[in-house]
Predict the 3D structure of the following.
Amino acid sequence: MASPDRWPEIRGIAYGGDYTPEQWPREVWREDVALMRVAGVNLVSVGIFTWALLETREGVFDFAWLDELLDLLHENGIAVDLGTPTASPPAWFFAEHPDARVVTRDGVTMGFGARGMASHSSPAYHAAIVRIASALAERYGSHPAVVMWHVHNEYGVPVGEDYSDHSVRAFRVWLREKYVSLEALNTAWGTTFWGQHYGEWDHIGAPAAAPSVVNPAQRLDFARFTDHQLRACFRAERDAIRAHAPQPVTTNFMANQSWTTDLWAWAGEVDIVSDDHYLWAADPEGEIGLAIAADLSRSVGGGKPWILMEHSTSAVNWQPRNVAKRPGELARNSLSHLARGADAILFFQWRASRSGAEKFHSAMIPHAGTSSRVWREVVELGAALGRLDEVRGARVAADVAILWDFESFWAQDLEWRPSVELSHAERIRTFYERLWRDGITVDFALPGHDLSSYKLVIAPAQYLLSADDAAKLTRYVEAGGTLVVSFFSAIVDENDAVHPGGFVAPLREALGVVVEEFLPLREGARHAVRWDGSTSATLVADAWQEDLVLDGADVLATHVDGPGARKAAVTRHAHGTGHGWYISTRLDAAGLRTVMSDVYADAGLSPSGLPDGLELVVRRGDGADYAIAINHRDDDVPLAVSGVELLSAQDVDGELVVPAGGVAVVRTPLPHSGGGGSAKSGNP
């Protein structure tokens, strides 16, 4: 399979993780590389938190230890993803530039001793990151071990917004470039409300904490500005590297786990999308959140293979309760990412740290050493990935898109919304879970994207929707698409101003409804919904109802009780050759099963029919398809499939038993069989 553009020069699936040899004596380095070879490691990330060791004083560098390390790794056939250490500036930097510290919204100046401590608008910080990135690239741009560059670490985590004086000045510059005139800014922000009109640019500050709620349009712009400033830092380092080094450049995203950065914009800046993902231990079905993050990583990268830059072998250390992974879960998690497009499986970290804030974080070599179950599973996974080289470069195809819009999320998360129950994360997770359980593969998209290739588009939480994007969604339906819109969508424009004509107004033509009034429910209140679609049923919903006025739509479900009793709960509207669905209440994934059954019929889709807990994704190559089945159940599951199971090198003729907690990867013959989102248990 041909490798995608700018993929690092590594044979097969990349495997390894963050390596921090600076924490260990030289004799451990040699033990490490020997064990890496045992485990099948072929890529490690190095240098991510080593600024103080590389630049001991401003402009004074010590590369001797890194020279030795890169030579050692290369001699042992281990490639390097070389990091720039700019997420953690040294103590000397803050001593010389105290004004570069981050300031919180409450006006507190952040101290030294963590990471992410520097203002992304500080001129001194910009100069320093370019200096260290340039020095590293000039020295190691031609080193044979270095196959890619890893800029910074998890931008926006733990610090996104900065309210320092540097940030305020930069915000004003950004606003002048965006609006040109104060008149345009005042109009966009609606500053006639509460007497906020601005007559001078210098009177505009960052939206710091105030006695009451700060102008939401200003706060939304500050979120956009923050993302812009973070990307400016990345671009400065990336361009400094490119001046001296030919290798691809990336930075590690946190898809579905950080909302600070707009990953659609960021994906256009990196050569390869890479992502860090950690299970949320409180979630008993963390594999669903994992799948969301993997699909989002693939989607923002335009469907190209991507890098799982970090995940954990077992427990993390920063959650309220850090639950250890059970036997086999390490492989299931890893191969779920691979199934959804990752061609590199890396961990944080190689060897568990004895000191520091993350000493209780799991690792490929845990504190228990190489006699541990975790180490045995690490070695087993390396061997398994070695048998899956041919999967590299194969693509995932989907017939369904879920809209995922960071700017809309930023706006929805501001204060004074109609109900605290209005969570975009919850709605997206619920709709995604329904499709995950139905065995339907999903892409994520923006409302302004070309959606014509998708049979079904779902907008679970598109609170902010521009008039232009609403027109595109309307044309999608008119041309034969099926659009599902959930409540509290299409409420405001790009300036967080309610659309002319009221709630959902820009989608009125596509949906055939008008929302006259929100009817949020009191805490804990539940209500019945009578479903009268292709079947009859009574569903249970909570949190939200609406006074929905019909404008051509047909009613498929009605509120039985609550403030919206006898009013429409779910509608379907024929527009052009497609259909627009509107769901005006909160149904859980089980309740959505009934609704989505009729939606699928409109879209020409069918659930896979697989038992709940058997995850099946197909990656499509040039000469074969690869059906990757992950069994999250406690019992064996038969799967109707034919081909060659690559992990066992066994022929499969019609049926394969996927063991409890196990994974199977089956090379299936061409031709392709239908859309990527409609794979059946008998015909993946």
